[in-house]
Amino acid sequence: MFYSHNSEPGFRQALVWLLAAVTLLASLATILHRLEPQPQWLDLILPPAMACAFAGLTLAALLRPNWSLSIVRLVVALGVLALVIPAWHYTIVSYRDPAITLVTIFPPITSLLLLLIMLVIVLFPPRSAFAVVLLAWGLISLPILAYLWLHPEELWSPRGKEMLLTFGPALLLLLVIAPFYQRANQQLERLKYDHVKMQRLAEHDALTELYNRHAGMRLLKQFLSRLEAGMVVLFDIDHFKDINDRHGHPVGDRVLQELARRVRKTLRDDSAVIRWGGEEFLVLLDDAGGQALQTIPERIRAVVKAQDFAEVGPVTISVGVTRVRADDTMDTLLERVDRALYRAKQQGRNCAAVEP
């Protein structure tokens, strides 16, 4: 029902500020009505009730961020209620007692209708927004406009003309503007989605769907900047050229895809798996304990060898691993893990070697 951005942290923060502002307005209205010489009984009840309700919603928005969408619904419902009740009450009172004029007793809340409508236009998708605005306008404006039409002496008073313009043409203007705003917002959402999609395409290898080398360099730089314990694993497929020569490059591509899937599945979600180049892969992992330097590379090697690859049969990898040091640069770290991989190949392949 609501736009996806309504669950983002920025939206939740804006919602809290909005609720706090509305709570303040309702509190000020409560004080002003208390100071009036002869306040209407509804003016003494409705503003404090709304101030308490919005204060509660403000607290809920702070303590329960995942309630944001439900709170938005309640805000709109309470806003409509806070306008419908006085619209009908004061109109009926003015109808019943000719000595009472609507333009005199109606509270200065006409601008709140415009604010409510703008809120609905911003928060709701197009079809829902139009329906909600039309319903709110019908419940709030029609009794007032009907009364003014039947009482021309009030209609042509300064307050009557202000109420007529607010509840009539001004609202219709917002209904005309709403589709343009919604269309612009949808375009922005589409551009945002396209940007995320293009960024993913730019940072991921099209074949294996792992990070590509360009993204891997950025991740490695961030990895080193954290200055936390971690490890880097570098591995490649043994005799991969023979696989391509014997079975063809399409089969070799499928081997790369299956290998990437197996390795990605066996590692934690917070690890970064990068296609470093050709049949070579780089893995960045936060330290998982003292034995991780031996167990994780062996786990990667074992998951590749555990099951034959379709069309090819058994496939093995050689693995090099090293721990990140406090004084490491990208060059020193990559040089050390590359040296470990070279040692694994020298030891006969299908094994893991550690470079301290």
What radius of gyration results from the CA coordinates?
Answer: 33 Å
Strand order of the largest sheet: 2-3-1-4-5
Point out poorly predicted stretches: 1-7
Helix content: 55-70%
Number of helices: 14
Q: Give the total of domains.
A: 2
- Give the overall shape, derived from the CA principal axes: elongated
| Class of secondary structure makeup | alpha+beta
Helix and strand element order: HHHHHHHHHHEHHEEHEHE
Distance between the termini: 55 Å
**Main β sheet profile:** 5 strands, mixed
Overall strand count: 5
How much is the average pLDDT?
A: 86
What percentage of the residues does DSSP assign to strands (E)? Answer: 5-15%
EC number: 2.7.7.65
Domain GGDEF: 228-356
InterPro entries: Diguanylate_Cyclase, GGDEF_dom, Nucleotide_cyclase, Rev_trsase/Diguanyl_cyclase
Organism: Gilvimarinus algae
Give the SSE map.
Elements: H1 9-35, H2 41-63, H3 68-96, H4 102-105, H5 110-123, H6 126-150, H7 152-155, H8 158-167, H9 169-203, H10 213-225, E1 230-237, H11 240-247, H12 249-266, E2 272-277, E3 280-286, H13 292-305, E4 317-323, H14 330-346, E5 352-355
Parallel strand pairs: 4-5
Antiparallel strand pairs: 1-3, 1-4, 2-3
Helix pairs in contact: 1-2, 2-3, 3-5, 3-6, 5-6, 5-9, 6-8, 6-9, 11-12, 12-13
